[in-house]
Amino acid sequence: MLSISHFQILLIVLITISSCKKPDDGDDIVPPETPDLTHLPFGGVAPTNILIRNQGNPDPDFLSLWLCGLPSNGAGANNAGDWTNPDGTWDYTQKPQVEGNVTWNHEFNIALDGNGNRIITGNALPNHPTGVFPIQQGTAAHQYDGNPNVISEHVVYYSLPEMPEIASSPSCVGFGPAGISLTGCAIYHGASTLGTDASAHEMLDRFGGHTDGTERYHYHFPAQDLQDHIHLHEHGHSELMGYMIDGFGIYGPHGENGEILTSADLDECHGHTHMIRWDGEMIEMYHYHWTYDFPYTIGCYRGTPQ
Ligand SMILES: [Zn+2]
Ligand SMILES: [Zn+2]
Predict the structure, then answer these.
(1) What's the 198 CA to ligand 1 centre distance in angstroms?
(2) Residue 272 CA: which ligand is closest?
């Protein structure tokens, strides 16, 4: 009798121990989720998700880019048929890239001025190699995109609020730099000047960037090489990738538990608020995320663009 009751106690203890052990108790590091880049949704002009303020779309919307306007003389690549899936999504892994490894004489600096401003200066050239621009005849990318523009130096000067605040109303996004990456180059919104999804249609290099008629190297897509070059993600929330021109940060595609965020997880400006690392401290703050789906970088400015 005595030995049976001891056995029963042992059994109860063992069951109790095993039921307390949960797989997500904290110490176990879950390997980062990998994105499926083979089925990405296309962004497109309203009534889908490129909303144009001066063409009758007075407000931003969830999953959308709220453009201020669209130029009448738009140009660029517009044939994505060879990497479009039968279900209407597009396959990043089947889309050609602009090849090459051109290196640049990069200058870039970020400093706080002690008066509440973050001063960003540089020459707009990246601290990583780029593809060869203009896109070279005879390359796979040139079949789809004859982008004739070079990459040239530009004066970068931003004075952004060190602690940006949410504005009383959001602002639409114009063409040109919407933000500045920690690599020293511009972050653009997700649309081409034709009003199409730039990442899905235009030929980018392996860092998700290319150049345009202003000869400015800039990013659309959060390519793995760009993410890894800025900061190798191990687990948890992504690190900072740059600053949008309202002063709020833009982080990589991983959320607080390391999960891959999509635009559906974010608000109409493509951001959200929770505890993040900001100038070395953990604070609760609004921030944008750079995701693999349209509008990729920003939907509207939550703060006040400079
Ligand atoms: Zn572009
Ligand atoms: Zn976040």
Answers:
(1) 6
(2) 2
Ligand closest in space to the Cα of 270: 2
pLDDT at residue 88 tops 90: yes
Ligand 1 centroid to Cα of residue 13, in Å, is: 62
pLDDT, mean of residues 166-181: 98
Return the pLDDT at 211.
98
- Measured from the alpha carbon of residue 276, the closest ligand is 2
248 Cα to the center of ligand 2, angstroms: 12
What distance in angstroms lies between residue 194's CA and the mean position of ligand 2's atoms?
Answer: 31
pLDDT tens per residue, range 212-245: 999 999 999 999 999 999 999 999 999 999 999 9
Task: Quote the pLDDT of residue 256.
Answer: 97
Q: Which ligand is nearest to the CA of 186?
A: 1
Mind giving me the DSSP string for the chain?
-HHHHHHHHHHHHHHHHHHH--TTSSSSPPPPPPP-TTSBPPP-BTTTSEEEGGGT--S--TT-EEES---TT--S----GGGB-TTS-B-GGGS------B-----EEEEE-SSSEEEEEE-S--SS-B--SSPPTTSHHHHH-----------EEEEEESS----SS-B-B-SS-SEEETTSSEE--SB-TTSSBHHHHS---TTSEE--TT---EE-S--HHHHHHH----SSSPPEEEEETTS-EEE-SB-TTSPBP-GGGS-TTSEEEEEEEETTEEEEEEEEE--SSTTTT-SSBSS---
Cα 45 to averaged position of ligand 2 atoms, centre (Å)? 27
What is the pTM (predicted TM-score) of this model?
0.89
- The mean pLDDT value for 15-20 works out to 42
